[in-house]
Amino acid sequence: MAQAVAPPSTPQKLDDIMIAMDVVDTLRHREDLVRRELNEEGRETELIARLRTIYHDQGIDVPDHVLADGVKALKESRFTYTPPPAGLKRSLFTLWARRGSYGKRTGIAAAALLAGYVGYDRMIATPARLVQEQSRIEITETLPKALRQAHADVVGIAPGDGLAKQKADAFVADGERALRDGNRDGAARALAQLGDLREQLRGAQAAGQSLRQAHAEVLAIAVDNAAKQKANIILAEGERLARAGEKAGAAKAAADLQALKSDLAREYTLTIVSRPGEPSLVRRRPPRSVNSDARNHYVIVEAIAPDGSTLALPVRSEEDGSTKSVTKFGMRIPQATYDAIAQDKRDDGIVQRNRFGVKRRGMLDVEHLMPFDGGYITSW
Question: Model pTM?
Fold first, then answer.
């Protein structure tokens, strides 16, 4: 006899499953009711009745088998999620499930790291690399070329100056030694010394040209040997100062040659003052004389140029040592000369022999026509 086959179970409808899940949810939210009814045997029927009332009050007609299935599902925790135990698999699934949140945080952190790296590169690393590269170029290219050029300049300015070349060679040697040692500051210092030497020689060269020009102009005017000898002495001293780099001393020598030229070019006649109301002669007691009766005798003169104008000359007073530019001054003379001039003026109030001396062009000194004791005064 053939064995009877059990009829297949009727599949549950989706609506029944959804209602059963709602029943479970309702029971979870009424924990006090669940604990009381499910813990007592035989009270399941009353629990289902109460659930039927709850749903009926909401206008929902739930069959008893669905309510019973919900109660059973709650007992079996059928619709309760129980997380898997902790482990690598759970951690990986958790990371994958939360990838959106982690991705955003990771992106922010990566962006911050990138910004920090870019800022560091631009603000610190790149400038440092530029400084290192600039230093390398200076040591290997710029400074060696500058040292050679400065040395060539020095030799070119003063090709016959052996002392200057010796100094330049020593400075270049110091600079090249510093470059081999990677000492940029030492090489720069040697270059600066070469530059100072170059400027010193250029200044000396310019001062020498100025000195020689002024010297030539003096010799073109000078007539007497004393003036020429004086010009030669000033030129030699000026060139020595220029080579030593003493610009102020070389400039003063050039100014002295110009003053000498002006003195040689000047020509005038020392004329005794003889105008009414103005003295022609004065007598002065020497300031440092212990003899109360001692007197110095002076004739008052002025320098008249060939065109009739009166010149102002620098005159140093023997009484106080000061030098002033004056148009009239006293020249100390012997008493006999003083008396002769006084007698000349007494005759008619005018000094007839009024030419005391002549300064000719090209001559350094005045040619005196009357005796002169060699002293001057600028006031009386």
Answer: 0.51
